[in-house]
């Protein structure tokens, strides 16, 4: 059996440190899990957008992307589901129902399950309509074609895009801008991030993409994970600076 290399040992140490940080913050912040928690700008904007749309009696569109089961599938495609869960809880009895759009069959089924669960928790299952979570298309461009009419709907007051999106999403962002519709977004795709930046919408970058439940204060475990993530960032940054200094000094 081959011995572990330095890179493997560092990776194991980071994983153990992350788990330790998760457990520590989850137990230490049990009573106030969201106190002094760093907020992600994109999800803060989404939070304000949710409230503004509800006050005006307008409709909110949530796009949760695609690429969960298609070629090049990625589990990052499900990152929009915690956001859907958080928004559903707050918008069940709004004048206009939340409209969820996905570009993957499995995501569409999961989004319907999440929405149905929100109604079930509110003891209002009879109000659930399957049309609140729809499949826009089974490919990138087909799902975009299905998303555009939802963005263009006359009752819309805001659009949130969270999931796997690519550069063609710029068409939807441009349509929203021309209709003066506010947009917030998060994606792990570099092409999607470029489109969001060009579309001048609030964007979550890097690991913050996975933090909707923490920022919207719906999951204490997610808040502990975000704190542990920030701690790891600090430790890694310090380690890099120390390593660079030792290298310059000729020690390493």
Write the layout of secondary structure elements.
Blueprint: H1 6-28, H2 41-56, E1 59-65, H3 80-91, E2 99-102, H4 105-121, E3 133-135, H5 140-151, E4 156-164, H6 170-178, E5 182-186, H7 190-198, E6 202-204, H8 212-215, H9 220-248
Parallel strand pairs: 1-2, 1-4, 2-3, 4-5, 5-6
Task: Give the structure's gist in a few sentences.
By secondary structure, this protein is α/β, with parallel strands linked by helices. It has helices at 6-28, 41-56, 80-91, 105-121, 140-151, 170-178, 190-198, 212-215, 220-248; strands at 59-65, 99-102, 133-135, 156-164, 182-186, 202-204.
Explain the overall architecture.
The structure is a single chain. The protein is α/β, with parallel strands linked by helices and 252 residues long. The protein has a single domain, classed as Rossmann fold (3-Layer(aba) Sandwich). The protein is built from nine helices and six strands; from the N terminus they run ααβαβαβαβαβαβαα. The protein has a six-stranded parallel beta sheet with strand order 3-2-1-4-5-6, sandwiched between helices. Helix 1 crosses helix 9, helix 3 packs parallel to helix 4 and helix 5 packs parallel to helix 6. It is globular.
């Amino acid at each position: 059996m081959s011995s572990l290399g330095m890179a493997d040992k560092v990776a194991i140490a980071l994983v153990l440190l992350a788990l330790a940080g998760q457990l520590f913050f989850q137990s230490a912040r049990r009573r106030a899990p969201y106190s002094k928690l760093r907020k992600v700008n994109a999800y803060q904007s989404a939070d304000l957008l949710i409230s503004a749309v509800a006050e005006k009696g307008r409709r909110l569109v949530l796009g949760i992307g695609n690429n969960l089961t298609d070629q090049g599938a990625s589990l990052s495609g499900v990152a929009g589901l915690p956001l859907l869960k958080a928004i559903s809880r707050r918008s069940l009895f709004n004048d206009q129902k939340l409209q969820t759009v996905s570009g993957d069959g499995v995501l569409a089924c999961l989004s319907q399950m999440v929405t149905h669960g929100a109604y079930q928790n509110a003891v209002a299952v009879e109000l659930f309509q399957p049309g609140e979570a729809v499949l826009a298309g089974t490919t990138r461009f087909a799902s975009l074609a299905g998303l555009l009419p939802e963005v263009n709907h006359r009752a819309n007051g805001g659009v949130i895009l969270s999931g796997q999106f690519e550069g063609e999403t710029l068409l939807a962002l441009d349509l929203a801008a021309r209709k003066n519709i506010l947009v917030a977004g998060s994606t792990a795709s570099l092409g999607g991030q470029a489109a969001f930046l060009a579309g001048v919408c609030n964007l979550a970058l890097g690991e913050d993409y996975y933090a909707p439940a923490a920022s919207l204060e719906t999951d204490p475990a997610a808040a502990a994970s975000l704190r542990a993530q920030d701690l790891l960032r600090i430790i890694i940054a310090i380690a890099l600076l120390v390593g660079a200094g030792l290298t310059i000094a000729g020690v390493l």
